[in-house]
Specification:
globular; 12 helices; 11 strands; binds iron/sulfur cluster; single chain; alpha/beta; 2 domains; about 35% helix
Length: about 350
Amino acid sequence: MIFRVFEKEELKKLVELLIAHNRVVGPVEAGKDSSGIPIYAFGEIFEFKDLRLNYTTTKLSAKKYFLPFKEELATFRMDTMNWQKEINYNVKSPLILFGLHPCDINALNKLDKVLIHSDYPMPYYLAKRKNTFIVGVNCEPQPSCFCRSMGTDTAMHGFDLFITDLGNRYFAEIHTDTAYNFLKHIKTTEPCEDDHVRYMKIVSERNKKFVTYVDTTDLMKILDMEFQSEVWKHWGDRCLACGTCSSVCPTCYCYGVEESVDIDLKRARKLKMLYSCNLIDFAEVAGGHNFRPERSTRLKYRYYHKHRGFVEAFEESLCVGCGRCGEACLAEIRVPDVINSVRSNGVRV
Ligand code: SF4
Ligand code: SF4
């Protein structure tokens, strides 16, 4: 890793340079809630002033740029008597993702394990991932964040450049030669001792701002012991089976594939759509049998995939503790509450 510092006005130059030659997306203010608090989303940046680097968690994650909710995988055309197949990886010009928080960088790293480094890589995801330059930025912990408990409050890889606001300047961690070359276009210097001290102080102050914790000690074993617990029924009865939690989650990747043929039999297409394990027909198979007809079994499955099955396969949880699912859930089902209640075997639910 190479470290540099640069003055704040240099960031504007860098972003404008990137906008001039690339598609840049980052946090923008999408509106305000009923209390006047800004709502943030990832969107295209056309001018530096659109970028909100001091944003809180976005409602939707940056997953949408790698796993769109709906994606055409292939089209088929009947040409004389043969079907012509056309595959489109849906990759546009290089994408600069500017301003990802550590949890969202770690979420992409987790998706990589399944969608790039497993036995069956997904070329559609890989093509987009390889075409992206990522700039991370440090964040202010929000009350709903529990990334520190999940070990995802800092990002050690999965980005090209990571910047931390030192107050009067930025501290930059350079992770790739692309980032190194980009930074040649602005004025940077080697960090002095004061910069390092200031950086360490900011990191340590940030660590003290996390207020939500989840005890993950022996969680896999506890989940095994509590498979039949009444706690699952308690949360399942509250769940509306709406699937919102999976939609906003940066690490949920389950999907369904739909094929359709035009009525004149000249064209067909294959569509991939993200899906949620909380939806009623998620585990329905041909013949109409549903392996998880109850909301409680589906909700339980989501937790066992994130905190049990994924841990067994990859030695880490599939949850980064961003808190988005709990904030979006109309039934106020939050991961820390569910895990704490499982740990206490439903004594306090
Ligand atoms: S947990 Fe909440 S967001 Fe998820 S399906 Fe149930 S009600 Fe919807
Ligand atoms: S399960 Fe919830 S808290 Fe965990 S990564 Fe997904 S949205 Fe974030």
